Amino acid sequence: MTDQQTHTDVTVIGLGPMGSALAQAFLAADRTLTVWNRTPGRADDLVAGGAHRAGTVAEAVTRSPVTITCLNDYTTLHQVLDSVDGPLRGRTLVNLGSGTPAEARAAADRAAGRGLDHLDGAIMVPPPLVRHPESVFLYSGPQDVFDRHRATLATLGDPRHLGADPGLAVLFNTALLGMMYATLNGFLHAAALARSAGVPVPEFAELALGWFMPAVLDPAGIAEQAPDMEAGTYPGDLGTMRMNRDALEHITRTSVEQGVHSELPRLMADLAERAVAQGHGDENYFAMFEVFANRGRR
């Protein structure tokens, strides 16, 4: 039996911009909502909309079968929960904070010590996109706990269960954010190079983004490489690591000539040189995966 069939109660602890968006989603779905925040005034709009403002963390957690926390970090999570005396057996904690996989696993252990079922999660959208059916929310922890509360979690977006290891959601979150920052920094550096020659950013962006997505970041094309990455096979018939190393060296030298920050392309050129030194010179650029994974030569 799902949680949707047995109850509609949910608690949200932590009412920053994201926590408030989560709470508003539950109100919009006609859930019976309890909220708590260290600054009580942040709950005013939610209370006006029908939420119950708990006076203590203990009251907030015990009013609902499932409590969702959206706090700055795991240290704050522990400080909040440690204010509750006694066990909290029979309830579920869903943490949607941020940190590291080790911190997530430690939080799961601490929750178990309090008698709480536990899921750790990651929100992959900004606050305005909460409630959209296609907005991805990542979760990790026991499958049965996820299944029991799937309906509640689906109120927020598209819930994806990654596995029983509590650290997986945080790991995926940091991996995906790392990809985002690397991609965005690549565009920003490229725009700076173009601007150094007097090219307006909008003019460069139109050309660059029109070329980049189909030619470089085509999801289908990258997905085709994934089995080779897993197998450690990188045929270099269409381009080799040495060719890419030389291109990265040219980008670095051009950045220096144009007075543009050159540390990012220098880092990438040095990584390509390391890949060549490890024996990947005649393989394609996806062999860089071996450097990042510290697998060396197979």
UniProtKB/TrEMBL annotation:
| UniProt domain 6-phosphogluconate dehydrogenase NADP-binding: residue ranges | 10-158
- Domain NADPH-dependent reductive aminase-like C-terminal stretches: 165-293
Q: Name one Pfam family in it.
A: NAD_binding_2
InterPro entries hit by this protein: 6-PGluconate_DH-like_C_sf (IPR008927), 6PGD_dom2 (IPR013328), 6PGDH_NADP-bd (IPR006115), HIBADH-related (IPR015815), HIBADH-related_NP60_sf (IPR051265), NAD(P)-bd_dom_sf (IPR036291), RedAm-like_C (IPR048666)
- A molecular function (GO) term: NADP binding
Entry annotated with the keyword Transmembrane helix: no
- Which key words tag this protein in UniProt? Oxidoreductase
> Is Oxidoreductase included in the keywords of this UniProt record?
yes
Which family, according to UniProt? Belongs to the HIBADH-related family.
Protein name, UniProt field: 3-hydroxyisobutyrate dehydrogenase-like beta-hydroxyacid dehydrogenase
